[in-house]
Design goal:
With 395 residues, the protein is mainly α. The protein has one domain (2-385). Helix content is 69%, strand content 4%. It contains 13 helices and 3 strands, in the order ααααβββααααααααα. It has helices at 2-42, 47-67, 71-76, 78-91, 118-134, 141-160, 164-180, 185-203, 207-217, 228-240, 265-296, 302-326, 344-378; strands at residues 98-101, 104-110, 113-115. The protein has a 3-stranded antiparallel β-sheet with strand order 1-2-3, with no helix packed on it. Helix 1 (2-42) runs antiparallel to helix 11.
């Protein structure tokens, strides 16, 4: 058992070390991509990087606090937590309360700071979905309707904003949790097909979404309009070639590429660090996902495995979608690159997810250490070495 604890500790170190490198690259690139814009807009080239460092400090504190709690607490009250998060998202669609930009109302503004509540529901839907699907057989019809309705409430609000990118991520994550859970398979496949058809109908229900699809197929049809951003991204990667133009030497960030320090920061990385830098960052994310899943699979608690896997899944999915959009492999959508792009809401919420994962690992590690103490006192092996350590999470 001592060896198993050592294996867990080694995986935690590898996972956190990989994350630390990604964050460091993110900080460097946020500064590089934003210092000219910051100087022009705010009179200080350090404006964005200072704010990002503040967000990082808050994020680390949140992750540490969440990691010290029992993850079963978050699952048990996931239903209520998701409703609370949905209510905050709902504020964004109230005229005069939410802040609108680029045709969408996704932000709340307090004292000059903007908050994007849609980021948190990517994780609260995991908690609510896990509680819902795992306890499906224990619920009566009214409970299923009530709990299911609250689970899909944030999806309706995200469409109302509109934020189809966050909607898509939440939908896919709910499907992932459902598949991993003990939810009846026949209902799962019916629901997945119905949800997929509904998602396509929503996608093609708005003209601007259809326009984005057409732009994705041929951005050069409107190079100064809808195709401008992705074409500038292509140019950034082309300028970077193999070894890049050098840190700080991007031309596209000079007011050519919109959202250079946010959604399209991967393009700046491609221009300044070249194919080598892009490949290195992709490998880091692959390692992050690999160590994350491998760490979660060390846990012998099935509920903990589902929760931890879902956190890694949503972070990996968002990284994949962002890179796909920036490289022109997917239609343009406003999704940032986790731990790399500028943005406090995203960074804080992503670290909330990291805290949940570490809470799962800590709970299991504490269980192992408790078993060791029991063996030392009694000389007998504990049953938990071969059995699940699931806790009741039914609400």
């Amino acid at each position: 058992m001592n060896e198993h604890i050592s294996d867990v500790d080694r995986l935690v170190k590898a996972f956190l070390s990989t994350l630390a490198i990604i964050i460091t690259i993110g900080l460097i690139m946020v500064w590089s991509a934003s210092f000219i814009l910051a100087a022009e807009k705010f009179g200080s080239s350090l404006h964005y990087i200072i704010r990002q460092l503040i967000y990082l400090a808050l994020s680390l504190g949140l992750a540490f606090s969440v990691s010290r709690t029992k993850y079963t607490f978050w699952i048990k009250y996931g239903y209520l937590i998701n409703i609370a998060a949905s209510m905050i998202v709902g504020l964004t669609v109230i005229k005069g309360v939410g802040s609108a930009a680029k045709g969408a109302s996704r932000w709340l503004t307090f004292g000059g700071m903007s908050v994007q509540p849609g980021e948190i529901v990517k994780f609260t839907v995991i908690l609510s979905a896990l509680s819902f699907f795992e306890n499906w057989n224990k619920m009566d019809t009214s409970e299923r309707i009530k709990h299911g309705g609250s689970l899909f409430l944030p999806l309706a609000l995200l469409i109302k904003q509109p934020d189809f990118g966050s909607f898509s991520i939440c939908f896919i994550v709910i499907a992932f949790v459902c598949f991993m859970s003990s939810f009846p398979r026949k209902y799962f496949y019916y629901s997945l097909i119905s949800g997929g058809v509904g998602g396509l109908m929503i996608l093609f229900s708005q003209a601007y979404r259809v326009k984005r699809m057409l732009t994705y197929l041929d951005p050069w049809k409107n190079p100064q309009g809808s195709g401008f951003q992705i074409i500038q991204s292509y140019m950034a990667f082309a300028n970077g070639a193999i070894f890049g133009q050098g840190l700080g030497n991007s031309n596209e960030k000079l007011f050519y590429l919109p959202e250079a320090h946010n959604d399209f920061i991967f393009s700046v990385i491609g221009e300044e660090l070249g194919f080598i830098g892009v490949l290195f960052l992709i490998c880091l994310f692959i390692a992050f996902i690999y160590f994350g899943f491998k760490l979660v699979l060390q846990v012998r608690d099935r509920i903990g495995i589902i929760l931890g896997s879902s956190v890694i899944f949503v972070l990996g999915l968002q990284a994949l979608l962002n890179m796909g959009v920036v490289l022109g492999l997917l239609p343009t959508k406003g999704l940032n690159l986790p731990f790399v792009s500028y943005g406090g809401s995203s960074l804080i919420c992503n670290f909330f997810g990291i805290g949940l994962l570490l809470s799962v690992v800590k709970g299991y590690r504490d269980q192992l250490q408790g078993n060791l103490k029991f063996e030392a006192r009694s000389g007998r092996k504990t049953p938990s070495e071969v059995e699940d350590i699931n806790e009741e999470v039914y609400v």
